């Protein structure tokens, strides 16, 4: 296993980039610690695959370095990086048995059969496929094929990092939670450095201890799932994490206070960089209260969606849509209501970036 460090990394597919717009990856400085479980999360086209290819050695970055345990591997080919990869589509040999599929990476590197048997048996037990070891891979279900593909990545003891490139894309939704749980369990048992690349927030947040969120070739936030939900560093993170995502409302900042539609909105704490940048208020639907009789921002209900566990209410106030999550009885479409924001969760953003601090100091 290894610590992976990306230092001053940038990459452009253009031979003569003229500016940031020509870079698929803008400047990235990032460290993944040895043995950690990480997710690389972002929409299609944000640079996830480019970054993955640079770490694996399929692509040499235009600028910067890739270091494994402080060793510069930027120019090393994939075969010399000791990396295991698990892809969207299971990479297994249908004509081989499950045992031989799991054994292949070890035999290919000349390991003795005693070592092969020990590792294959251990990984098969972790994956709960011991009873399938003599079964031909062609006869497996899609989720079991992907289990074997994961096992091929984990069976070697000399890998620096195991990288998962959207490994659950082709798995039926009702089976995904089983494989996510199994992958988390495997990480806890083998303690390998793992990087999970996905556009699915559920997969990222349930697997990783630390999530790296990317947008347009930039890392916009690194944090725990709780950090990303409770305190998005950028409005993109607020939109991307959560269902529905964070409400982002236009506002004006005057005298250190925020005004939405002319109404003063109490923020979590003081505002930095007074007067600079486009100002917006960010508040998650979970922290918006809806009332027919209370005080607050006057609004009317546009629609209510009952999703079982709770109801998602969409209200209109000052020509802006505001979502709220409610338990129990909800108002009807067309009803006049008032909205109240939980002050401790009401944040100010400027040009997309967090610009307020909690009362009593930054967190």
TrEMBL record:
SUPFAM superfamilies to which the protein is assigned, alphabetical: MOP-like (SSF50331), P-loop containing nucleoside triphosphate hydrolases (SSF52540)
Family, as annotated: Belongs to the ABC transporter superfamily.
InterPro entries in alphabetical order: AAA+_ATPase (IPR003593), ABC_transporter-like_ATP-bd (IPR003439), ABC_transpr_FbpC (IPR015853), ABC_transpr_MalK/UgpC-like (IPR047641), Mo/tungstate-bd_C_term_dom (IPR008995), NA-bd_OB-fold (IPR012340), OB_MalK-like (IPR040582), P-loop_NTPase (IPR027417)
Keyword Nucleotidyltransferase: no
Protein name per its UniProtKB record: ABC transporter ATP-binding protein
Residues annotated as transmembrane: none
SMART domains per the UniProt record, alphabetical: AAA (SM00382)
GO terms, molecular function: ATP binding
Keyword Nucleotide-binding in annotation: yes
Keywords: ATP-binding, Cell membrane, Membrane, Nucleotide-binding, Transport
Domain ABC transporter: 4-241
One Pfam family here: ABC_tran
């Amino acid at each position: 296993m290894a610590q992976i460090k990306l230092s001053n990394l940038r990459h452009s597919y253009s031979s003569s980039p003229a500016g940031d717009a020509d870079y698929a990856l803008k400047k990235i400085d990032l460290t993944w610690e040895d043995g950690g479980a990480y997710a690389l999360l972002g929409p299609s086209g944000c640079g996830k695959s480019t970054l993955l290819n640079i770490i694996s050695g399929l692509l040499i970055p235009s600028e910067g370095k890739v270091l494994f345990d402080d060793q510069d591997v930027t120019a090393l080919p994939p075969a010399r990086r000791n990396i295991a990869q698990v892809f969207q589509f299971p990479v297994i040999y249908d004509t081989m048995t499950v045992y031989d599929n799991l054994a292949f990476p070890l035999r290919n590197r000349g390991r003795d059969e005693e070592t092969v048997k020990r590792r294959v048996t251990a990984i098969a037990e972790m994956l709960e496929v011991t009873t399938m070891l003599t079964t031909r891979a062609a006869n497996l279900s899609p989720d079991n094929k992907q289990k074997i593909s994961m096992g091929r990545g984990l069976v070697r003891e000399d890998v620096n990092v195991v990288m998962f490139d959207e490994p659950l894309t082709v798995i039926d939704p009702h089976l995904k939670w089983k494989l996510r749980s199994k992958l988390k369990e495997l990480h806890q048992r083998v303690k390998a450095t793992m990087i999970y690349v996905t556009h699915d927030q559920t997969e990222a947040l349930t697997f990783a201890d630390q999530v790296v969120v990317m947008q347009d070739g930039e890392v916009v936030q690194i944090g725990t799932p709780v950090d990303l939900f409770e305190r998005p560093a950028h409005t993109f993170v607020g939109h991307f994490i959560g269902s529905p995502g964070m409400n982002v409302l236009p506002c004006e900042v005057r005298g250190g206070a925020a005004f939405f539609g002319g109404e003063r909105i109490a923020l979590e704490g003081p505002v930095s960089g007074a007067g600079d940048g486009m100002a917006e208020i960010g508040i998650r639907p979970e922290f918006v209260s809806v009332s027919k009789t209370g005080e607050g921002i006057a609004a009317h209900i546009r629609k209510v969606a009952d999703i079982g566990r709770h109801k998602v209410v969409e209200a209109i106030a000052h020509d802006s849509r505001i979502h709220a999550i409610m338990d129990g009885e909800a108002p009807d479409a067309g009803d006049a209501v008032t909205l109240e924001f939980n002050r401790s969760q009401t944040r100010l953003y400027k040009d997309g970036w967090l610009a307020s601090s909690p009362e009593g100091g930054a967190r």
